[in-house]
Design brief:
This protein is α+β, with helices and mostly antiparallel strands and 107 residues long. It has helices spanning 2-10, 32-40, 56-64, 74-88, 103-106, and strands spanning 18-23, 49-53, 69-72. A 3-stranded antiparallel β-sheet has the order 2-1-3. The longest helix has 15 residues, at 74-88. The protein is elongated, with a radius of gyration of 23 Å. The termini are far apart. Belongs to the universal ribosomal protein uL30 family. This is Large ribosomal subunit protein uL30m. It comes from Flemingia macrophylla. One of its GO terms (cellular component) is ribonucleoprotein complex.
């Protein structure tokens, strides 16, 4: 959650044409109005991200459910995805030589 807060503090959201919205808290136990707002934003499951245009309507919806979601600009979203992809990159295989020692080495 701290990484999300760091992303939130970087860039003013009003300047970005697109917003990437991620649901980070669960829906059960929330108010009906908040559930309906998340449904209108097409956020159904935790850790799912949707892209929406940056309009006053969407920003008002986000203000209503701000404790449940994280809002990122396009640059912040791409940077986070690149960082996650670099973390998951395949590492080179560990090669172990299992040759039995030769008789000449033993003598």
């Amino acid at each position: 959650m701290n990484a999300f807060k760091a992303y939130k503090a970087c860039v003013p959201i009003a300047w970005s044409p697109n917003l990437y919205i991620t649901l980070v808290r669960g829906i059960p136990g929330t108010r009906r109005l908040h559930r309906r707002t998340l449904e209108a934003l097409r956020l159904r499951k935790c850790n799912r991200t949707v892209m929406r245009w940056n309009t006053p309507t969407v920003r008002g919806m986000l203000q209503q459910v701000k404790r449940l979601v994280v809002v990122e600009t396009e640059e912040m979203y791409k940077a986070r995805k690149q960082k996650e992809a670099a973390h998951r990159v395949l590492r080179p295989p560990l090669v172990i030589n299992h040759k039995p020692p030769s008789l000449t080495d033993a003598l």
